[in-house]
Each structure stands twice: as structure tokens, then as C-alpha cells.
């Protein structure tokens, strides 16, 4: 018994010893933490603010009853649109602004496409802002022919329905039917060749400015690259003030007293100018070079401005004070020399040639602009520099010197680009007509380019670039974009109006409905709004023979507006011309309203 008790007591003692040892360790650890806490006291948590807690509670309750408002589509004008805006009040008071800078059909094209396919439109809307375009339910466009801007302003008191439209802007009406432009605006087209007299009303009759293509004129030819009159207006080329009221050409002279009809054999001359800034003109001529099709320099001179030079712009122009010190050639001397050098059917070539002609203060009808016929972006209106185009398509480097540009070098580059285009087709170098990958592939295979007929075919070994004219099938136009996004459109009008639409530009999503008169056109329009994403209706009036036409137009505006559903983009184009006369470029109006029912 004694031995068992002794063994039991021994086991108990050991257990007690272990517990005491653990206790000492815990006490030591606790002391360590307490000392650490004394040295670095913990940051006390802020006590909860009852008022703040109550606010959070109420806010959470409010969320259950208040839904986030849905973002609605919204239309407004940007700076460019405001400069073209016509005040309805001013029209009533006969105070129409004389400082308006009008828009063009291209601007309408941008808005029309964006209102139908939303932000998927590849074209930037430069003059207006259209927010949440994908939430627009319908788009309706009335194309009204037979009235000019003046007709509307002079009779504004009879058109009370115009107050429905918060945005009224002035446009430059083309001498090309709207339907033709809508179908082909994204392309390099030949409609100015088909309408051989398209130049005739843009210049004095005695100058005989016109196209005279021979029967064997097969694209691509020089004629297919010429800018049409409306393109020249859009690109700010000098125009006679009596033809285009907004032309800034006071003191300008023609390159010839009279012209010969231009044809595919007319000679080309590349022109490039360098400018400085004077006290009177931000772009004053200081140097010019002219190169012929053989890449020979036929004219090259420095020019001494009469006004005081305040900036030689040496970085770009290469002109210094020392270079002009002994120069005696004046601006007028250059004008006279060009008038002697250029034949009456000369075609001028250049990069953004409008700037050079303004610097020269000269007007010329036949021009090819490399910044327009070449397009690397795939977006009409977005231009590449001459340096970029030359490197991409000619595999040559220009404008790399620190002492500024050389007009001879730039003229030669522009001429080579045009010759290359003529060798390879209208689609060559135009990302709007061919795949960008194809353009790059063509460029990478190009060798040094020889003059005239010795130009190397850079498309060798590649698929043939697509040449697109107004009469050929195209899958990248306005209506093709609609079909791409499964949008339906209906075109309504009389037979004459609808015939201006190129059937090759249409597709199965586009319906054409021919109606004989305005009454039936309007009735059909009202019926088709529900079943289509876009309705374009053409109305033709004759103010001279029908005195009630203005009242009829006024009623139609109200009737169509009432038929439009909520979130309909309703537009009216007063084209400024009539269906029988597209010879002149006149001023028209474009009116817009985004209808909301609440």
C-alpha cells in the first residue's frame, strides 16, 4: 500500500509541475504583450455616430423605392453646328445672320447613319452631339426639293410648323442629287464624269470649264481622280464669289482667262508652296515649285512678301530672313508666270492643294488632291500627311531635313502618288475601298517608283484592288452598313427621285416605293414608319406654279411629326434645288428634332 501511494503521489507531482510550468510561460507571454501595448498603445476605434448610422439606414430604405432614371437619347449642336445655325427668331425679324458657316451633305450623312446604327457608325459626328443613339426608336428624313433657303426665309410667317425643330442649320446643296450622294459619298465616284456639265455653272460661261471625256475613257483615268465642284467647295478650294456666296476669294485671279475642256490626256502639274506669317496674312507665299509629269521642275522661285514678315516658320517652310534678302519676285509675278506656263486644260496636283491655291490667291477648276484620293484610315475626311503617304506607298522618305520642307521634293512626291494611283486603280491606297492589310501588303512590295510610264506596279502579286465607281456593286456603303446591323429602310418618292438611287448600292433590307404625288408619298410615309428603322421620303414642289406649296409643306411637317413615335429622330432637308435642275450649288436648310413624349 505504501509503495502504491508513493507512486501515485509522484505522478500527481509531475502533473502539477507541468501545469505550473505552462502557467509561468503564459504569464511571461502576457507580460510581454502588456509591455508591448504600453510602448505602442492600439488605436481606439471611433465610437459609432448615431446620426450617421441613422442616415445610412434611411438611405438603404430609400433605394428600395427610388429607381435610377433611364438615360435618354439627346441631340445638341457642337461648335461647328452652331456656326451653321439659323435662328428662327432672326428669320422672323429679317435678321438672318451673314456670318454663317454652312454644313454639307457629308455632315447629314454622319448624323443619319449614327441615328440608325448608333455608336457602331465608323464616321465621327463632328458638328453635333448625339448621346445614347442606340436608344433612338426610328429615324425619318424628308428630302424637300424645289425650295431654297431664301424661299423659306422670305415666307417664314407661313411656316409655323418650323417651330417644331429646335435645330435649323444652313447647308450647301450639291449639284448632285441627294440620293446619289447618300449612296456613294464614302467612295471615289464618277458622277461628275457622267454629268459632264457639272462644272459649267461653277465658272463663267465664257471660260468653258467642263469635262470632255472621250468614248474610250476607261477607269482609272485622270478624270476619275478630279475633285467634283461640291468636293472643291467642301474642301475649301477657292471659288468665284458670285457662284458660292461664302467663298473667300476677294482679290483672287483665275489661272487662265479661259479654259479648254479637260480630258484624260490633259497634262498634270504638281504644285507645292511654302508660306510665312505676315502682319496682314497668316499664310503668305514665300516659295513655289511646279513639276510636270516627267518629274521635271518647270518653275521654282522664292517670293518676297510685300507685308512685314512676323514669322518665317522656318521649321516648316525652310525660309529664313537671309534667303529673302535679295529676292525681287513678287506675288503678282508668280501669278502672271503661272498664267503663262499652264495650258488651258491643265490639271493641278498637290497635297491639300486648296492651301496652296489660297496662298497663290488663284482659282483653278481642274484639281487632283492626294490627301483625298489616298486614305489610310478607312474614314472619309481623315487625312494622312504627304510624308506618311510617300513612305507607305512609295517607300521613300521626305521632309526629314531639319531646315524645313522642300517644295520641289513635295511636288515630285505628289505627282508620283497620282501616277501610282493611275497605274493600280481607283481603289489602290484607299482603305475605304480595300482592306488595310492589302494596302500595307501592296506598299511593302513596292520598289522605287520611276516617272510617268515607268511607275512600278506595287500591286504585283496581290489581289487586284477594288475599283469602285457609281455604277458598280459595293458592299461598304450607307445601305450596306444598315444591312450589316439588320436595319430596315424604306425609300419613298416619285420615279424620278428614286431613280437617282443606284440599285447596286441597295440590298434586300432596302425597300423602294414609287408614288406619283405628294399626297400618296406622305400617306405611304406614315404607314412605313412603324415597320422600318429608317424612312427617307422625297417631296418635290414648284413654288412658281403652285402658290399653295408652302402651306402644303407646312401641313406635311406637322402631319409627319405627329405620326412619329417617342424617340424618333425627325429630320428635314430643304435641298435648295429641284429634281429637274442639279446644275447649281445653292444654299439649303437642314432641320432636326428628337421627338420626346414626356
TrEMBL record:
<keyword id="KW-0175">Coiled coil</keyword>
<comment type="similarity">
    <text>Belongs to the REXO1/REXO3 family.</text>
</comment>
<keyword id="KW-0269">Exonuclease</keyword>
<keyword id="KW-0539">Nucleus</keyword>
<dbReference type="Pfam" id="PF00929">
    <property type="entry name" value="RNase_T"/>
</dbReference>
<protein>
    <submittedName>
        <fullName>Putative exonuclease C637.09</fullName>
    </submittedName>
</protein>
<dbReference type="GO" id="GO:0004527">
    <property type="term" value="F:exonuclease activity"/>
</dbReference>
<dbReference type="GO" id="GO:0003676">
    <property type="term" value="F:nucleic acid binding"/>
</dbReference>
<dbReference type="InterPro" id="IPR012337">
    <property type="entry name" value="RNaseH-like_sf"/>
</dbReference>
<dbReference type="GO" id="GO:0005634">
    <property type="term" value="C:nucleus"/>
</dbReference>
<keyword id="KW-0378">Hydrolase</keyword>
<dbReference type="InterPro" id="IPR034922">
    <property type="entry name" value="REX1-like_exo"/>
</dbReference>
<dbReference type="InterPro" id="IPR047021">
    <property type="entry name" value="REXO1/3/4-like"/>
</dbReference>
<feature type="domain" description="Exonuclease">
    <location>
        <begin position="267"/>
        <end position="427"/>
    </location>
</feature>
<feature type="coiled-coil region">
    <location>
        <begin position="16"/>
        <end position="68"/>
    </location>
</feature>
<keyword id="KW-0540">Nuclease</keyword>
<dbReference type="InterPro" id="IPR013520">
    <property type="entry name" value="Ribonucl_H"/>
</dbReference>
<dbReference type="InterPro" id="IPR036397">
    <property type="entry name" value="RNaseH_sf"/>
</dbReference>
Amino acid at each position: 500500500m505504501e509503495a502504491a501511494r508513493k507512486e501515485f503521489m509522484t505522478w500527481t507531482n509531475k502533473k502539477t509541475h507541468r501545469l505550473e510550468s505552462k502557467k509561468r510561460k503564459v504569464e511571461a507571454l502576457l507580460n510581454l504583450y502588456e509591455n508591448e501595448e504600453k510602448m505602442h498603445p492600439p488605436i481606439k476605434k471611433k465610437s459609432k455616430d448615431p446620426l450617421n448610422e441613422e442616415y445610412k439606414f434611411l438611405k438603404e430604405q430609400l433605394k428600395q423605392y427610388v429607381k435610377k432614371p433611364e438615360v435618354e437619347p439627346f441631340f445638341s449642336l457642337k461648335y461647328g453646328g452652331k456656326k451653321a445655325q439659323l435662328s428662327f427668331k432672326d428669320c422672323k425679324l429679317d435678321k438672318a445672320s451673314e456670318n454663317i458657316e454652312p454644313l454639307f451633305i457629308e455632315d447629314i450623312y454622319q448624323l443619319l447613319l449614327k441615328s440608325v446604327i448608333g455608336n457602331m457608325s465608323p464616321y465621327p459626328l463632328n458638328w453635333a452631339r448625339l448621346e445614347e443613339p442606340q436608344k433612338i426608336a426610328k429615324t425619318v428624313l424628308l428630302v424637300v426639293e424645289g425650295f431654297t433657303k431664301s424661299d423659306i426665309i422670305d415666307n417664314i410667317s407661313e411656316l409655323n410648323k418650323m417651330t417644331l425643330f429646335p435645330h435649323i442649320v444652313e447647308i450647301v446643296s450639291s449639284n448632285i442629287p441627294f440620293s446619289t450622294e447618300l449612296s456613294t459619298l464614302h467612295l471615289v465616284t464618277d458622277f461628275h464624269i457622267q454629268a459632264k456639265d457639272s462644272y459649267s455653272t461653277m465658272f463663267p460661261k465664257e471660260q468653258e470649264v467642263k469635262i470632255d471625256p472621250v468614248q474610250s475613257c476607261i477607269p482609272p483615268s485622270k478624270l476619275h481622280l478630279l475633285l467634283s465642284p461640291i468636293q472643291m467647295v467642301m474642301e475649301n478650294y477657292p471659288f468665284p464669289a458670285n457662284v458660292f456666296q461664302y467663298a473667300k476669294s476677294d482679290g483672287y485671279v483665275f489661272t487662265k482667262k479661259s479654259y479648254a475642256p479637260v480630258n484624260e490626256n490633259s497634262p498634270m502639274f504638281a504644285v507645292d508652296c511654302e508660306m510665312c506669317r505676315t502682319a496682314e496674312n497668316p499664310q503668305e507665299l514665300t516659295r513655289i515649285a511646279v513639276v510636270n509629269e516627267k518629274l521635271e521642275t518647270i518653275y521654282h522661285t522664292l517670293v518676297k512678301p510685300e507685308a512685314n514678315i512676323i514669322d518665317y516658320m522656318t521649321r516648316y517652310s525652310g525660309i529664313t530672313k537671309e534667303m529673302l534678302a535679295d529676292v525681287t519676285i513678287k506675288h503678282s509675278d508668280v501669278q502672271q508666270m503661272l498664267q503663262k506656263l499652264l495650258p488651258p486644260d491643265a490639271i493641278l496636283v498637290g497635297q491639300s492643294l486648296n492651301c496652296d491655291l489660297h496662298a497663290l490667291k488663284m482659282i483653278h477648276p481642274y484639281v487632283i488632291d492626294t490627301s483625298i484620293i489616298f486614305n489610310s484610315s478607312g474614314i472619309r475626311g481623315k487625312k494622312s500627311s504627304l510624308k506618311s503617304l510617300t513612305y507607305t506607298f512609295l517607300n521613300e522618305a521626305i521632309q526629314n531635313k531639319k531646315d524645313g520642307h522642300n517644295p520641289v521634293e513635295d511636288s515630285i512626291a505628289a505627282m508620283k502618288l497620282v501616277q501610282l494611283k493611275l497605274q493600280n486603280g481607283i481603289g489602290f491606297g484607299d482603305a475605304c475601298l480595300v482592306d488595310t492589310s492589302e494596302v500595307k501588303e501592296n506598299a511593302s512590295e513596292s520598289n522605287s517608283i520611276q516617272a510617268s510610264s515607268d511607275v512600278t506596279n506595287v500591286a504585283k502579286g496581290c489581289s487586284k484592288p477594288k475599283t469602285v465607281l457609281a455604277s458598280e456593286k459595293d458592299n461598304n456603303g450607307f445601305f450596306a452598313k444598315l444591312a450589316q446591323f439588320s436595319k430596315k429602310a424604306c425609300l419613298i418618292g416619285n420615279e424620278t427621285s428614286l431613280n437617282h438611287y443606284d440599285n447596286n448600292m441597295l440590298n434586300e433590307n432596302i425597300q423602294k416605293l414609287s408614288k406619283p404625288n405628294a399626297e400618296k408619298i406622305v400617306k405611304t410615309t406614315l404607314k412605313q414608319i412603324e415597320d422600318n428603322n429608317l424612312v427617307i421620303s422625297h417631296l418635290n414642289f414648284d413654288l412658281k406654279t403652285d402658290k399653295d406649296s408652302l402651306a402644303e409643306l407646312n401641313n406635311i411637317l406637322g402631319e409627319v411629326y405627329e405620326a412619329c413615335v417617342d424617340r424618333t429622330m425627325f429630320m428635314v432637308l430643304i435641298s435648295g434645288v429641284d429634281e429637274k435642275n442639279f446644275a447649281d450649288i445653292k444654299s439649303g436648310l437642314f432641320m432636326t428634332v428628337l421627338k420626346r413624349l414626356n
